[in-house]
TrEMBL record:
<dbReference type="GO" id="GO:0004363">
    <property type="term" value="F:glutathione synthase activity"/>
</dbReference>
<feature type="binding site">
    <location>
        <position position="220"/>
    </location>
    <ligand>
        <name>substrate</name>
    </ligand>
</feature>
<dbReference type="InterPro" id="IPR014042">
    <property type="entry name" value="Glutathione_synthase_a-hlx"/>
</dbReference>
<dbReference type="Pfam" id="PF03917">
    <property type="entry name" value="GSH_synth_ATP"/>
</dbReference>
<feature type="binding site">
    <location>
        <begin position="148"/>
        <end position="151"/>
    </location>
    <ligand>
        <name>substrate</name>
    </ligand>
</feature>
<dbReference type="Pfam" id="PF03199">
    <property type="entry name" value="GSH_synthase"/>
</dbReference>
<protein>
    <recommendedName>
        <fullName>Glutathione synthetase</fullName>
        <ecNumber>6.3.2.3</ecNumber>
    </recommendedName>
</protein>
<comment type="subunit">
    <text>Homodimer.</text>
</comment>
<keyword id="KW-0067">ATP-binding</keyword>
<feature type="binding site">
    <location>
        <position position="425"/>
    </location>
    <ligand>
        <name>ATP</name>
    </ligand>
</feature>
<dbReference type="GO" id="GO:0005524">
    <property type="term" value="F:ATP binding"/>
</dbReference>
<feature type="binding site">
    <location>
        <position position="305"/>
    </location>
    <ligand>
        <name>ATP</name>
    </ligand>
</feature>
<dbReference type="GO" id="GO:0046872">
    <property type="term" value="F:metal ion binding"/>
</dbReference>
<dbReference type="InterPro" id="IPR005615">
    <property type="entry name" value="Glutathione_synthase"/>
</dbReference>
<keyword id="KW-0460">Magnesium</keyword>
<keyword id="KW-0547">Nucleotide-binding</keyword>
<dbReference type="GO" id="GO:0043295">
    <property type="term" value="F:glutathione binding"/>
</dbReference>
Length: 474
């Protein structure tokens, strides 16, 4: 699997030439990011980091990941509607994790008041790595499922053309023609448009809830522009704007300075640091409103690491998806080993195992966005410190996935061109719309491949570690 471009990857002259073409092609195609210096202006922008070469991905695993996506949509939707399961699963976590507790409080509050909207829109991305077994065969293993602000569906729609060109420059036209078309942004917009339509007001807008620091705006613009093309109005607002301009009428319709909002699409709101008291108030206002929330707070909670770990317990999927044995089998086949650190014997045992052999595991808190997990020595130290305290329960443990590395070049502005040993993470986008009890849309509209150098244990393009890539199926 690693050997796809063996002949060219060491040819320094060819690589240098191809890299120059690649960077210009990325700029032309709109694979863009704002700069760290000017994150909120588009006067000077740069290309988003990407690989020179597409990475080899085993075709069977790629197809497996697509085949299970609609099942994952069903599962996330089922979890989000199961109050008892969310309550039980998160009970230990919310005792020690303030952020999850605060989200959970809003969840309880809106349920008590009664939901003002029966239309649900889910956009998620299920991420996988290819675990290399002792015999050299690779297996698809889910890393996590992102149920809020799953990004890069826009930029990844544009990287395929860049890689196609690079392969041609390197004399590989035949391989270039095999790269699959991929346009998740279009599919995400389709889901948002469907929810907007079901909301049922021509005048109402779609509101992108965006960050204070908006480096990744071009990725979002890809989705926005798809909506404009459908004659759906889009506004971009921050939590602060919602606090200042947002209000509900008697039937809990959401207005921003008099403008009715049909759909709130969160590209923000998953990190504790961004919530001051005003932003929490804004979040509550949005959740109480009649606007379709993507995701609603229940679906955000369904994406926590703790829920992921509980889903892997024998019998849980059967309870959540009764009558879907085939979907359950497909879902379960992608699970890595996941372990609860709740207080008690089971948690004690796995904590001791991980302290003795930290390289077998990843220690994960209830956080999103990259850079939060613990590995190796650090995992051992932290676990050693918290193993007898309730704080332990704010984490879960997961088997560490060990993919086979391949050589590639990571193209990043202002960075030298050098070969790196890399591993990749495949994400499949999911989108679904439910009206009451009827699922009216359930799709897997595209994929994302991200690749990082093996020196980095953790990932994330926005976190500055991984870069955009395109799968080359082998
Ligand atoms: P986040 O919500 O921060 O994105 P993830 O669970 O996706 O959290 O972990 C972040 C990164 O850490 C992943 O992109 C991957 O590179 C690495 N990682 C996470 N879990 C594992 C694992 N079980 N084995 C190997 N690497 C992992
Ligand atoms: Mg992740």
């Amino acid at each position: 699997m690693a050997a796809a471009w063996q002949d060219v990857v060491r040819d320094a002259v060819a690589v240098r030439e191809a890299a120059a073409v690649a960077v210009d092609a990325a700029l032309l195609a709109g694979v863009l990011m704002r700069t760290g210096e000017q994150p909120n202006a588009s006067d000077v922008v740069n290309y988003a980091p990407f690989t020179l070469l597409p990475s080899a991905v085993p075709r069977a695993l790629f197809e497996q990941a697509y085949a299970v996506q609609q099942d994952f949509n069903l599962l996330v939707d089922a979890v989000s509607q199961n109050k008892e399961f969310l309550e039980q699963t998160l009970a230990s976590t919310i005792k020690v994790d303030d952020f999850t507790a605060r989200l959970f409080r809003i969840y309880t509050q809106v349920l008590e008041e009664g939901l003002a909207q029966t239309v649900v829109l889910g956009i998620n991305r299920s991420d996988y790595m290819f675990d290399c077994g002792l015999d050299g065969t690779a297996a698809l293993r889910q890393i996590e499922i992102n149920t809020i602000a799953a990004s890069f569906g826009g930029l990844t729609s544009r990287t395929t053309d860049v890689h196609r060109l690079v392969l041609k420059v390197l004399g590989k036209s035949e391989e270039a023609s095999q790269l699959l078309p991929n346009n998740p942004a279009k599919g995400l917009a389709l889901g948002i448009a469907k929810a907007w339509e079901l909301y049922g007001s021509q005048r109402a807008v779609v509101m992108f809830l965006v960050e204070e620091v908006q480096r990744n705006i071009f990725d979002q613009r890809c989705v926005e522009n798809e909506l404009w093309n459908r004659n759906i109005r889009v506004v971009r607002k921050r939590f602060q704007d919602v606090f200042e301009q947002g209000s509900l009428d008697a039937s809990r319709r959401l207005y921003m300075d008099g403008q009715e909002v049909a759909v709130v699409y969160y590209r923000e709101g998953y990190m504790p640091q961004i919530y001051n008291e005003q932003n929490w108030e804004a979040r509550l206002l949005l959740e109480r409103s009649r606007a379709v929330k993507c995701p609603d707070i229940a679906t955000q909670l369904a994406g926590t690491k703790k829920v992921q770990q509980e889903l892997s317990r024998p019998g849980t999927l059967e309870k959540l998806l009764p009558g879907h044995p085939e979907a359950i089998a497909r879902i379960r086949a992608t699970f890595a080993g996941l372990y609860s650190l709740d207080e008690g014997e089971e948690g004690d045992r796995i904590a001791a195992t991980a302290i003795a052999d930290p390289d077998r595991f990843v220690l994960k808190p209830q956080r999103e966005g990259g850079g939060n997990n613990l590995y190796g020595e650090e995992l051992r130290e932290v676990l050693e410190k918290i193993k007898d305290s309730p704080e332990r329960t704010s984490y879960i443990l997961m088997d560490k996935i060990k993919p086979q590395p391949a050589l590639n070049y990571l193209l990043r502005a202002h960075s030298p061109l050098q070969a790196s040993k890399c591993i990749s993470e495949l994400g499949i986008f999911g989108v679904y719309v439910r009206q009451g009890q009827e699922l009216v849309l359930n799709q897997a509209p595209g994929h994302l491949l991200r690749t990082k150098a093996i020196e980095h244990a953790d990932g994330g393009v926005a976190a500055g570690v991984a870069v955009l890539d395109t799968p080359y199926l082998v």
